[in-house]
Amino acid sequence: MPAARTRHTAPFHASTPRPKPPIRGALVIGADSASALAARLEEIARHLTNAAAEREAPRAADLRAPVRVAIDHASPAELSDRIGRARNALLTDNPSAWRLLRAFGIHRGSGPAPRVAFLYTGQGSQYVNMGRSLRAAEPIVGETFDEADRVMTPLLGRRLSDFVFVDPADQAAVAAAEESLTQTAITQPAVLALDRAITRLLAAYGVGPDMVMGHSLGEYAALVAAGVLPFADALEAVSARGREMARVSVGDNGRMAAVFAPLPEIERILATIDGYAVVANYNSRSQAVVGGASAAVEAAVQAFLAAGFTAVLLPVSHAFHTRVVAPASRPLRRVLERLDVRPPLLPVVSNVTGGFYPMGEDARPRILDLLERQIASPVRFADGLQTLHAAGVRVFVEVGPKRALHGFVEDVFAGDPSVTALFANHPKLPDAVAFNQCLCGLYAAGLGTAVDAPQTDAAAVEPAAALGAPLSAVMA
């Protein structure tokens, strides 16, 4: 388990650039108690005008207050409505109300800032134009895709961005992009690029992870965040990973299915199936993905349906994370061996074991072993969440497209009010809304950079990784 560490940040001085303002409206206030916070909200509501409020970073006194509320908004009218909702929740002291209010971009936090884990999405979460407006508005995001284009153009024959971003009004272009993003060799670097872009954008707000974990392909984004691989090397690695997986051609490339049922029931039913069908993704307490031989997986789906559970065959080319794709492991290992693989600078969870990757100077060979095994081994994501929780993580941020991992967190830790699950991007929300609501959740937790921080403030709690400071966490 990682040793405890203290997170500090240098105080702001007059010569220090102002912290980056929120991407849209974000009211962040704090007080010594819930009742005092409700009174502050009432006072703010009384003085709201129709004028658009200036976007600015939260103030240190609010971000470090014992009780905090952060509210995403686009207009004074929307802010007024959301202030009323937050004030009612404070006055009724109903903890369950706050979970519902997160859908409105209203977040509550209290006490010292908790440890944070970034969770990185994998293949299957991609969609056309993911992060398009962020790329246009935020130079950090645009620069990340520019870097990905430089690496991937020689490998793909076109810029990676050309496969992801198209005119949304051009139906033919959208359809072509959707087809391209089903190709594993394109999907994997595309998702990695957005994962990395959002990580860098969060860092611009002073928010970085204490620990990281990815889901399948997302493990490579976690390795980049942990300092194990440079971004350019990770792009080359996932391109090779996708290419080698796509090249696997056996008599039966297998099938996969998502199953919504308690894990013990999933395993019990699989044990009754003739042929090779196994759990490929242990996602949460009540959702898993099974994979294996086509006939066996199809029979398993019928058995799950007959038992009253939901099971859906997935549109994939191979049974990933099963022995079907094991032939891709050695070719990937050869690519990884020539890349700049280094020991982690912060704790990163392995999909293969559900525990932390090795750290220290002798870690490289064991890291390569785990990555070689990862292709054909089940993803032990639920175990990894428990590992992070046991290490003190209470805020889990899904970094990348969509919010499947957010759902897994809420399922695994259902009933634990100390856990907050956030997501930063989703196709059903404008990019700025999804990102800003995530940012408000982090502000409410007491995370992020603030204005007018006292020069003697030694108790500030920015994650060191976001500020480029060395990380002292070690493995016991």
Please explain how this structure is put together.
- This protein is of the alpha/beta class and 476 residues long.
- It contains 18 helices and 11 strands.
- It has helices spanning 34-46, 60-63, 76-92, 95-101, 132-137, 139-156, 160-164, 171-180, 184-204, 218-225, 231-247, 263-270, 294-306, 329-337, 364-374, 381-390, 404-412, 431-444; strands at 25-31, 67-73, 106-110, 115-120, 211-214, 255-260, 277-282, 287-292, 310-313, 393-399, 420-423.
- It is globular and about 70 Å long.
- The N and C termini lie close together (6 Å).
- The relative contact order is 0.17.
Number of domains: 3
Q: Can you count the beta strands?
A: 11
**Regions with pLDDT < 50 over 5+ consecutive residues?**
1-16, 453-476
Q: What strand order characterises the main sheet?
A: 5-4-10-11
* SS-based class: alpha/beta
- Listing every helix as H and every strand as E from the N terminus to the C terminus, the arrangement reads EHHEHHEEHHHHHEHHEHEEHEHHHEHEH
List the helices and strands and how they pair.
Elements: E1 25-31, H1 34-46, H2 60-63, E2 67-73, H3 76-92, H4 95-101, E3 106-110, E4 115-120, H5 132-137, H6 139-156, H7 160-164, H8 171-180, H9 184-204, E5 211-214, H10 218-225, H11 231-247, E6 255-260, H12 263-270, E7 277-282, E8 287-292, H13 294-306, E9 310-313, H14 329-337, H15 364-374, H16 381-390, E10 393-399, H17 404-412, E11 420-423, H18 431-444
